[in-house]
């Protein structure tokens, strides 16, 4: 089991052979955070960097999983732990998600986690995908996606799960739920998240074609809320967060919950069936063949 080590203002999760303290939610052992007294608390695990400024209440969570921030099981585990920790931290009021990798927000789910593995592995992976969406879509604190690069499929879902999306105005970048182009199907909760953001008709076209939108097209359909020059993405996200934080937390939080809870509850009511569906679907020979061809295509593009 991979170890999650956070140094400085951080906590440490270790595999079961290295037990150090009581259990945490993810079957790993956690030493809970120890923060220093200054206003900035940084922690960096291998794949997620967290920088919390407790004077403003704003945390910046950076994806750092080169080359393309694909969401592997380890990435998702570290990501959900970081969000949980921030949700429990009273000095944090809002979270900005962005990427430490140039030109890529996230390449989405790690296809290698869905290819050539056992049914048990697919189930474990899928539960971690559900976990991150449930955490993000129902997150109590304000969230902004500062989308500084490509954002297909799972990367788009993470952005869609935030309260506000600011994207770099670089015409080369793309964002969208492109699953059908891989020969797979966005599950119902990906679809619900898209419908809740862009409306039913746009989602029909978007999901069936697996459309990837340029930033200006994404703005037109409401998939993102704002475009800014690439170098201003994080700065604008911080300014925007400051404006949102002028709203009393409890009022904003209850309003968000009223709007999103029914969508979250749909998955909560059928998590096991959804996992079974995923495992059966992804284990099919035809789906494995599609994913294998897609991986080959990604590699051959470079040659
Ligand atoms: C009946 C209903 C049942 C329901 C069942 C539900 C099933 C649904 C299942 C899952 C939903 C899926 C969600 C997803 O997120 S799937 C992932 C979709 N992602 C993509 O399509 C993106 C693919 N990547 C790219 O387009 C590009 O890599 C890029 C634009 C992000 C970056 O381009 P570039 O900078 O040129 O980098 P490279 O292409 O050269 O990539 C570098 C390296 O990384 C590998 N790689 C890229 N993306 C992924 C990925 N998502 N997973 C794993 N690996 C990835 C790429 O292959 C290169 O590898 P290398 O050759 O070994 O270096």
From TrEMBL:
One of its GO terms (biological process) is fatty acid beta-oxidation. GO terms for cellular component: mitochondrial matrix. One of its GO terms (molecular function) is delta(3)-delta(2)-enoyl-CoA isomerase activity. Its main location: mitochondrion. SUPFAM superfamilies: ClpP/crotonase (SSF52096). Pathway: Lipid metabolism; fatty acid beta-oxidation. It catalyses: (3Z)-octenoyl-CoA = (2E)-octenoyl-CoA; (3Z)-dodecenoyl-CoA = (2E)-dodecenoyl-CoA; a (3E)-enoyl-CoA = a 4-saturated (2E)-enoyl-CoA; (3Z)-decenoyl-CoA = (2E)-decenoyl-CoA. It comes from the Eukaryota. Signal peptide: none annotated. PROSITE patterns: ENOYL_COA_HYDRATASE, PROKAR_LIPOPROTEIN. It is found in: Mitochondrion matrix. InterPro entries: ClpP/crotonase-like_dom_sf (IPR029045), Enoyl-CoA_hyd/isom_CS (IPR018376), Enoyl-CoA_hydra/iso (IPR001753). Its EC number is 5.3.3.8. Key enzyme of fatty acid beta-oxidation. Able to isomerize both 3-cis (3Z) and 3-trans (3E) double bonds into the 2-trans (2E) form in a range of enoyl-CoA species, with a preference for (3Z)-enoyl-CoAs over (3E)-enoyl-CoAs. The catalytic efficiency of this enzyme is not affected by the fatty acyl chain length. This is Enoyl-CoA delta isomerase 1, mitochondrial.
């Amino acid at each position: 089991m991979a170890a999650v080590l956070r140094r400085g203002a951080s906590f440490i999760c270790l595999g079961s052979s290295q037990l150090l303290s009581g259990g945490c939610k993810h079957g790993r052992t956690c030493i809970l955070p120890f923060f220093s007294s200054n206003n900035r608390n940084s922690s960096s695990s291998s794949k997620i960097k967290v920088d919390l400024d407790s004077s403003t209440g704003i945390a910046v969570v950076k994806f750092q999983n080169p080359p393309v921030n694909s969401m592997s099981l380890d990435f998702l585990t570290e990501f959900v732990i970081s969000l949980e920790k921030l949700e429990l931290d009273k000095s944090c009021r809002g979270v900005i998600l962005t990427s430490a990798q140039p030109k890529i927000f996230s390449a989405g789910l790690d296809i290698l986690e869905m290819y050539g593995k056992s049914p048990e592995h697919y189930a474990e992976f899928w539960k971690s995908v559900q976990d991150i969406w449930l955490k993000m879509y129902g997150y109590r604190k304000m969230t902004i996606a500062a989308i500084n690069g490509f954002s297909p499929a799972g990367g788009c879902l993470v952005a869609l799960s935030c309260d506000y999306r600011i994207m770099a105005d670089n015409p080369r970048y793309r964002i969208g739920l492109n699953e059908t182009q891989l020969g797979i199907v966005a599950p119902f909760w990906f679809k619900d998240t898209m419908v809740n953001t862009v409306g039913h008709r746009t989602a029909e076209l978007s999901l069936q074609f697996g459309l990837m939108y340029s930033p200006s097209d994404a703005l037109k359909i409401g998939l993102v809320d704002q475009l800014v020059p690439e170098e201003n993405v994080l700065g604008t996200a911080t300014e925007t967060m400051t404006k949102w934080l002028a709203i009393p937390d409890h009022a904003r939080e209850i309003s968000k919950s009223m709007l999103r809870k029914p969508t979250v509850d749909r998955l909560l009511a059928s998590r096991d069936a959804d996992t079974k569906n995923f495992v059966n679907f992804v284990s099919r020979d035809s789906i494995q063949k599609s994913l294998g061809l897609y991986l080959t295509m990604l590699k051959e593009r470079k040659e």
